[in-house]
Each structure stands twice: as C-alpha cells, then as structure tokens.
Amino acid sequence: MFELEILSIISAVIVVIVAIILASGIKKVNQYEKGIVERFNAYEKTVDPGLRWVIPFVQRVLRVNLREQVIDVPPQEIITEDNVVVTIDAVIYYQVIDPKRALYEIEDFELAIVKLAQTTLRNIVGEMSLDTCLTSREKINVELRSVLDQATDKWGTKVNRIELQRIDPPADIQLAMHKQKTAEQERRQIRLLATGRKEASAQEKEGVILKAQGDKQSAILKAEGESKAIELVAAAQAAAIKLVSEAANEYFMENAQLNKRLDVIRDTFSQQTKIVVPSSADILNVLGLEGTSVLPIRTPKKTDTEKSEEQGAMK
Fold it and tell me: How far is CA 137 from CA 61, 115, 128, in A?
C-alpha cells in the first residue's frame, strides 16, 4: 500500500514537470515584431506575430522589433575647413526591414551605426567652413543619411532620416558672432529709420503737391462755375430784354411813334411856327381836326425863268 502511494506521487510529479516543459514551449510574438526560430542555435525559420510553440531545449524564438527606433549620437568635436572646432550631435531614426540579416549580419547594430555616423560627420563637416556648416544643416543631413543608408542596407535596416541637434562653435567665436549680429541689426535699424524718414518726407511733399493741385483744380472749377453762372444770368437777361423788346415792338410801337410826333409838334408850336401838312396826314387825327375842312394854301405859279434856275441849281 505504501509503495502504491509513492508511485502515485512520482507519477504526479512527472506529469507536472512534463506539463511545465510543454508550457515553456509556448512563445508570444507581438504585432510589431517578427520571430526568428532557431534549432540548436541555428536559423530555422521566421514566424509572424501571434502565439507560437517550439520544442523546449531544442528550439528557441528570438524576437526582432520592426518599429522605427531612435539612436542618439553623442556630441563630438570636429575641426572645420577653416580650423574652427565645432561640437555636433545628432539623432538617427532607423527601422529593421529584414529581421534575419539584422540579427545575424551585425553584432551590435546601435554601436555600429553610432560610430559610422560620427565618422561620416567628421568627413562631411571637415570639408566645410564654419559659415557653410552653420547654414547647411539640410545638406549635412542628406549626405549623412545617404552614406548610412548604403552602409546599413546589408544589415537589414533602413535609415529613415537624420537630424542634427546642435552645431556649437567655441565660446569666443559665439561672442564675436553675437557682436557682429548686433552691429548688423543696429545698421539695419538705422537704415530702416533713414528710409522711413525719407519716405515720410517724400509722402509729405507729395501730399503738399496733391493739395496744391487740388486747390488749383478747385479754383478752376469755381471760376468755371462762376463764369457759367454769369453766362446763364446774361443769357436770361438777354432773353428777358428780347421778350420785352418784342412785346414793346408789337404792342407799343404805334403809341411810341405817336408820342414822338406829339413831342415834335409841341416843340414846333412852342416856337409859334406855322407848318403846312397835307389833308390826309395823321397829325390831323392827333389834333382832333379829322373830318374838318382844311383850307389848302395856294402857291403862286413859278415863271419859266424860276423853273430854269431851280433846275440849274439841282444839277
């Protein structure tokens, strides 16, 4: 009886150990990873994300991260073409595209790419002057990315981009650059101030000219308006005079002529002058003698001699 109990305990222990060993063969590969299965430390296959089972103590799964990763390149001092020491650091963004080559072609990828980036930076910046280096970040980024991308292609990785973080010249050069920039800003400020004053003066002169032109045009328009008004008034007065004259000619001409004749008769009679008028003259009507018998005055007959003398005088 005691032996049976011992055998039962041993069997249970064996079952538990076997279950633990079988459970240890279950491996999980995340969505952003690829699994490399090795059999006795030799590459066997690449597996996709999910739950995978391998034979314990025979196979193992190595997981490779496929997400984009960042490596910080430590600051380093580089001598430029004009013998100025600058401190430069950068960041590298890379991504594994072939898990097998990334695992077996390079031992320490991050260390290798950092050293390669530092060496390439020294080569690129060493051929530039300080001014060119400070203004050519994009050019340095492109050249560095091209070199690293070609070098890391056999490692199953791709360098997506590289960004320079700092390009720091020595402190004394920074101070000189700051003074130079300050002087340039002051000169630019003075130049802008002078330009502004010049433009303000020109605008003021232009305003005076425009005002004078406006006053001149206003005076011309005012004179033209007054002239036009005078012309219109004169034309109205002439039209009125014309109407009055026409009315006078039409309605008062005969009376005016009669008044004139009366004035002549009055002046004539005031001098006790005797006049001889024909019987049909209008003056008889004026004097109220119309219809009365007016004696004609007989004139003596002229002799032939007097007629001859008169004709001779007329010739």
Answer: 42, 20, 12
Q: At 163, which CATH number?
A: 3.30.479.30
Q: Of the residues 119, 137, 169, which one is the last residue of a structural domain?
A: 169
Longest distance between any two alpha carbons in the chain, whole Å: 219
* 259-277: pLDDT as tens digits: 666 666 666 655 555 555 5
Amino acid at 3: E
Cross-sheet strand order for the sheet of 157-168: 69-79, 85-96, 157-168
Q: How far apart are CA 283 and CA 250, in angstroms?
A: 22
φ, ψ of residue 18 to 5 degrees: the values are -65, -40
pLDDT at 310 over 60: no
Phi and psi based region of residue 275 (left: phi greater than 0; alpha: psi -120 to 50; beta: remaining) = beta
Contact 29, 61 (CB under 8 A): yes
Q: Which of 5, 35, 65 is the last residue of a domain?
A: 65
Q: Is the pTM of this model over 0.70?
A: no
Domain that holds residue 144: 69-169
- Higher per-residue confidence, 176 vs 108: 108
Average pLDDT, the chain: 80
Task: Give just the sign of the alpha carbon dihedral 187, 136, 111, 62.
Answer: positive
Residues 108 and 32 in one domain: no
Do 125 and 178 meet the contact criterion of CB atoms below 8 Å apart?
no
| Cross-strand pairs, 87 | 77, 168
Same domain as 87, residue 46: no
